[in-house]
Amino acid sequence: MKIPNKLNIMGRTYRVEYDEKGLSDNDDVGKYDEQAGVIYISKGFKELPRCMDSVEQNFLHEVVHGMCWQLGYNQLYNDEKFVEQFSGLLHQIIPQLEDK
Ligand SMILES: [Zn+2]
Predict the structure, then answer these.
(1) Which of 15, 28, 87, 99 is most buried (CB neighbours < 10 A)?
(2) Which tens digits make up the pLDDT trace of 32-75?
(3) How many CA atoms lie within 13 A of 88 on its CB side?
(4) Rounded to the nearest whole angstrom, what is the distance from the C-alpha of residue 15 to the centroid of ligand 1?
């Protein structure tokens, strides 16, 4: 799965930025920042990089937060269990749609 540098969600363009140090304030591995228009993803620490599967899943997790926000589903936006499960499904399905 290819993670783009920019992603449009319902007309709003978000930059995708990587944090090499980890988003370590509270052990977050990703962050959806609506105001700044940025999806932050941690690639882990230099000495302990995260596997790409984990980075992709994390990216989709933040994308699902963004989708819920743009759709106005505030309850789902804050429902980490839903966001994690739905992004897990996307992570399984999206690679099957790509050309081999
Ligand atoms: Zn989340």
Answers:
(1) 87
(2) 999 999 999 988 777 777 888 999 999 999 999 999 999 999 99
(3) 6
(4) 17
CA of 84 to the centre of ligand 1 (A): 7
For residue 98, the CA-to-ligand 1 centroid distance in Å is 25
* DSSP of 23-89: BTTTTBSEEEETTTTEEEEE-EETTEEPPHHHHHHHHHHHHHHHHHHHHT-HHHHT-HHHHHHHHHH
Q: Starting from the edge strand earliest in sequence, which strands make up the sheet with 12-19, in order?
A: 6-9, 12-19, 38-42, 30-33
Which is nearest to 18 in space by CA: 65, 53, 50? 50
CATH numbers and ranges of domains, the chain: 6-97 (1.10.10)
User: Does 18 score more than 60 pLDDT?
Assistant: yes
Token pair listed for 19: 């944090």
